[in-house]
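name: query_chain
kind: protein
chains: 1
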Amino acid sequence: MYPLLSKFKVRRRLLGALSVAPALCSSLVRSADNATDLRPTHPCVDEHDLTPRQMEGPYFKPRSPQRVSLIELQLKGTPVLLSGLVLSTSCKPVAGVLLDFWQCDGEGNYDITGNRLRGHQYTDGAGRYRLQTVVPGVYPGRTRHIHVKVQAPGRPVLTTQLYFPGEPHNGEDFLFTPDLLVALKDAGASRVARFDFVVRLG
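structure:
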């Protein structure tokens, strides 16, 4: 299981990756300290709705590598640090939840032969996750989105997609729903995003 990294560890690991993708990792190092500033996407006032399900799409591949960073050499796209919580319907954080992410690159291309921009991780003891990736591109019929499968221990898989606010193609995408918008802000040459998943345990 991957624990949520402290700010010091985030900086150390990202700096260690500079030799792989210097521009992307440098930008993520600068944005790491801003990740906690974003508003929760599901404020826990009372019990609230489950995260909506969406279709898997044609590009899912099982057995992705376990990793918290999808940044690789020559990867195209604006770096983004996505983090958040996995919560139960009673607003309790859920530890050990599997999150399996996949997406296209900044030009709208999926890797269908390898594992570029694919990876899974687990929430830490406080229900937190953190993913270092790039903002996905657009392609015909789709706005920017990140696919994810979320599975709490012993529970069914939730398959869904995350979207970005302010995108001109959101209104043209037949799958888009504002319930799946990340909270987003600029952080220099990179971006910081947050999304809190809500899953049913009982």
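note: Residues 96 and 103 are 23 Å apart (CA to CA).
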